[in-house]
Every structure is written in structure tokens, then in C-alpha cells.
Automatic annotation (TrEMBL):
Region spans: Disordered: 1-25, 39-89
N-acetyltransferase domain mapped to chain residues: 149-288
Organism: Urochloa decumbens
Domain of life: Eukaryota
CDD domains in the cross-refs: NAT_SF
PROSITE patterns in the cross-refs: GNAT (PS51186)
Protein name: N-acetyltransferase domain-containing protein
Length: 297
């Protein structure tokens, strides 16, 4: 099974961009990495595009469901939403479980956030010939800085970082909670016009990005667990559509997404290949909570 790895969201660069050795890492789409100025080779997994996720999206779209002027998904009954939440969120706080992995929202504490940055850095760092340790530490610091920015500047119903961890009791005895984290994904409410035009009946959507799994835990269904948790969060937040990006030539990742119910709605234009970029596809999934028949059951 292809392992999911997508790029972190495009964010304002919180660290100084003045370093002559820093360049935008194409696999991270917006997190500044101290790597040589070349396109990073694709490794196993999925690198989805960053899409939106800009400062404007994080800071201006603070409307909440039900508030005056708030964007509306298709109506969902209170009973229907409550039932979906009860089915999808375990008593232990997990949004989803799969193959021994549990996925929950990241705790906003220092050690756990540093662990999240470590996982993302290990997943996306491109080794360089000289001073690799230095570049890795610099990259990890920028990933952590970007994470802190998102947490501080995003309303709790518009951004969430989900973490996958070993959920079996036998694996937890000798580990601190944050040490069990092996996978990460970002979920952000967005309203990019180029995507909205493909989403009938909605003016916002839940964008999935930044999927990262530690190298030693790949091909063990961690990515599948993360995807299921994203869907559960989308149901809780009453969004009709899930959206993600994948590289057009990554058949393994696209096959996995298609199996999960995602379909391709658009592609990057041909000219992106002329500047050395890989074409991406936008894939969407419609969530069933907004189906009136399901709500009435």
C-alpha cells in the first residue's frame, strides 16, 4: 500500500528568509528548507500541494457555523451530527482507529508540538551532501515555527493538527504520550475559488495536507488511519466536502484516495512542467452526513 505523505500548508515564513542557502522546498510547498536550490526528488508516498492555507485564510476566515454571515454547508440536523460524532469518536478521544493506530487532535503542549515537527521534518527533509545535520535542524526549526504560527492564529474550528499513535496498551507502558506519535496530518477550513467551483452547494471545504509518516512506520496503514480521522473531523465540523491534492503520476497514492472515495476534479495546467514542477490533481470527497436520507435514519 502506498504511504501517504503530503506537504505542509503554505504559510508565511516565520523565520528570516535572508539566508542565501534557503529555498522553498518543492516537497513541502511553502515551508522554507535549507537545501540546495534544486527540485527535490520524489520519494515514496504522496506529496499533495499546499493549495490555500495562507495567512489571509487563517486570520480572516474566523466565521463559525451558525454565526451571522457564516458560510453554510448543506443543512445537517443536530441529531445527525451527534450520531456521526458518537460513531466516529472513541471514548479515549480518538477520531479513528485502524490496524492498532489511533488518531486524535494534537495537544497544544511544547513536547508534543516538538514531536510533530520532528515527524514532519524526518518525512520531508531532503538530505544534502555537506552539513546535512545542520540543514536538518534548521528545517525542523522552521517546521516547528510554522506549526506554532498555525496553532496561535487559527480558530479551533478552522484548523486542527491530527496525530497518529500506537493505540495498543502493550506499546504505551514505557513511552511518554508524545513519543508514540508516528504520523501527522493538517486539516484546514478553506474557500479557494478555483476549488469551490467544483463543490456544488458549499462555499467552504476541509482541506487535507501535510500528511507525514515516520520512515520506519510506513506501509503499516498509518496513512489510512489519518485519512479516516480527517473524514471524522469533517463530519464533526459539518463540512460537505473533503479536498486534497496528489501528484498526477503517483498512481499508488491516487489509487488509495480513489478507494477511500475521492475523485479527481481538476489538474494543474501543462505549463507547470516547463518550470520543473510535477503536475498535481485536485481530489474531492463528499461526506455522507449531508445526505438527508442518512440523517433521518
Amino acid at each position: 500500500m502506498a504511504v501517504l505523505r503530503a506537504s505542509p500548508l503554505l504559510l508565511p515564513q516565520p523565520l528570516s528568509p535572508s539566508s542565501s542557502r534557503s529555498s522553498r522546498c518543492p516537497t513541502c510547498c511553502g515551508v522554507t528548507a535549507a537545501v540546495a536550490s534544486r527540485q527535490a526528488p520524489s520519494r515514496t508516498g504522496v506529496h499533495g500541494g499546499a493549495g490555500g492555507g495562507s495567512k489571509k485564510t487563517l486570520l480572516t476566515n474566523r466565521r463559525r457555523p451558525g454565526a451571522a454571515g457564516a458560510p453554510s454547508c448543506l443543512p445537517a440536523t443536530e441529531d445527525g451530527v451527534a450520531a456521526a460524532g458518537a460513531e466516529r469518536e472513541e471514548e479515549d478521544g480518538y477520531l479513528a482507529r485502524e490496524a492498532g493506530w489511533g488518531v486524535r487532535q494534537m495537544g497544544r503542549v511544547g513536547e508534543e508540538m516538538r514531536r510533530v515537527a520532528q515527524v514532519q521534518a524526518e518525512a520531508f527533509h531532503v538530505p544534502v551532501a555537506l552539513f546535512n545535520d545542520f540543514f536538518f535542524d534548521f528545517f525542523k526549526a522552521e517546521v516547528l515555527s510554522a506549526l506554532i504560527y498555525r496553532v496561535r492564529n487559527s480558530p479551533p474550528d478552522r484548523y486542527a493538527c491530527l496525530v497518529a499513535e500506537e493505540a495498543e496498551p502493550t506499546t504505551q507502558l514505557s513511552q511518554a504520550p508524545y513519543e508514540k506519535i508516528v504520523g501527522i496530518v493538517d486539516c484546514t477550513v478553506q474557500n479557494e475559488e478555483d476549488i469551490i467551483k467544483h463543490l456544488q452547494g458549499a462555499d467552504e471545504y476541509l482541506y487535507v495536507s501535510g500528511i507525514a509518516v515516520l520512515p520506519s512506520f510506513r506501509r503499516r496503514k498509518v496513512g489510512t488511519a489519518l485519512l479516516k480521522a480527517c473524514e471524522a473531523l469533517g463530519l464533526q465540523w459539518r463540512h460537505k466536502f473533503m479536498v486534497l491534492r496528489a501528484y498526477e503520476d503517483d498512481d499508488g497514492a491516487r489509487g488509495l484516495y480513489a478507494k477511500a472515495g475521492y475523485r479527481v476534479v481538476s489538474r494543474d495546467p501543462d505549463w507547470v512542467t516547463w518550470v520543473g514542477r510535477r503536475r498535481r490533481v485536485v481530489m474531492i470527497k463528499e461526506l455522507p452526513i449531508h445526505n438527508n436520507q442518512i440523517e433521518q435514519q
